[in-house]
């Protein structure tokens, strides 16, 4: 199966984030119901109350929205049309929270998807590239080179992360024959990957609010340098 990197930002949208909190609302982000309690790789451990959101005056109301205060490393804010399509495909597990988005005086129903399942075992570690980020240097110190490091499995990656907090991903290759049409990772700088099948379905339906980037070759290998990736 062929995959693309899924970036949660509309290509034609200049306003980012598109959505902010309704200022007049009495919402305590330190309370137990706060969305701040949503954590990567975890289901909600208590009842989560969604804040009301307001669309920025210069923003477009797209099918997927970039919003404060939701973390795009493990959540997607989308409308019913996007969610309905997603439910037809095999994805990383997620839970759904209804949320209102206001455009002037109009209310629109959206859903926050919390992807609590991480599919790091979907990475082909032997064919991915990793390095150790050099420590910060002062102006008078000589620049240090990045040290390449070989990692052959998820277990080795986790062990290296415990030893070195600075393990970085240069290129990431997904395994062949994965069962997912959308999967979430916590390795590298890209959180979500989407199958060509699901990508074509979303594009056929005319949905907006995201971009899909090709791998650096036809073998599901992705460059983690976003500045270069976006030019492909």
Description:
By secondary structure, the chain is of the alpha+beta class. 13% of the residues lie in helices and 27% in strands. The protein has a six-stranded mixed β-sheet with strand order 2-3-6-7-5-4.
- Amino-to-carboxy terminus distance: 20 Å
Oligomer classification = single chain
Using the CA coordinates, give the radius of gyration. 19 Å
Q: Classify the helix fraction into a percent range.
A: 10-25%
Order of helices and strands: EEEEEHEEEEHEEEHEEH
Map the helices and strands.
Blueprint: E1 3-7, E2 19-21, E3 53-55, E4 64-65, E5 75-79, H1 80-86, E6 95-103, E7 106-114, E8 129-132, E9 147-149, H2 154-163, E10 167-173, E11 182-184, E12 192-195, H3 196-204, E13 211-213, E14 221-223, H4 226-229
Parallel strand pairs: 3-6
Antiparallel strand pairs: 1-12, 1-13, 2-3, 4-5, 5-7, 6-7, 8-9, 8-10, 10-14, 11-12
What's this model, at a glance?
With 232 residues, the protein is an alpha+beta fold. It contains four helices and 14 strands. 13% of the residues lie in helices and 27% in strands.
What are the main properties of this structure?
14 strands, 27% strand, 13% helix, 4 helices, 232 residues, 4-stranded antiparallel beta sheet, 6-stranded mixed beta sheet, single chain, alpha+beta
């Amino acid at each position: 199966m062929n995959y693309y990197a899924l970036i949660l930002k509309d290509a034609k949208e200049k306003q980012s984030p598109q959505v902010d909190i309704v200022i007049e609302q009495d919402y305590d982000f330190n309370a137990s119901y706060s969305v701040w309690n949503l954590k990567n790789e975890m289901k909600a451990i208590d009842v989560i109350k969604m804040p009301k959101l307001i669309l920025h005056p210069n923003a477009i109301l797209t099918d997927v929205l970039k919003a404060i205060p939701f973390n795009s490393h493990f959540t997607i804010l989308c409308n019913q049309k996007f969610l309905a399509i997603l439910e037809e495909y095999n994805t990383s597990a997620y839970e759904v929270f209804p949320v209102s988005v206001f455009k002037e005086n109009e209310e629109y129903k959206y859903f926050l998807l919390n992807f609590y399942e991480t599919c790091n075992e979907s990475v082909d570690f032997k064919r991915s590239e990793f390095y150790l980020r050099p420590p910060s240097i002062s102006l008078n110190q000589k620049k240090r080179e990045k040290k390449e490091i070989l990692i052959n499995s998820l277990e080795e990656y986790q062990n290296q992360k415990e030893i070195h907090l600075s393990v970085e991903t240069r290129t990431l290759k997904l395994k062949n024959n994965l069962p997912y049409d959308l999967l979430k990772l916590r390795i590298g700088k890209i959180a979500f990957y989407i199958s060509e099948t699901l990508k074509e379905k979303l594009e056929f339906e005319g949905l907006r609010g995201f971009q899909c980037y090709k791998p650096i070759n036809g073998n599901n290998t992705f460059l983690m340098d976003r500045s270069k990736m976006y030019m492909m």
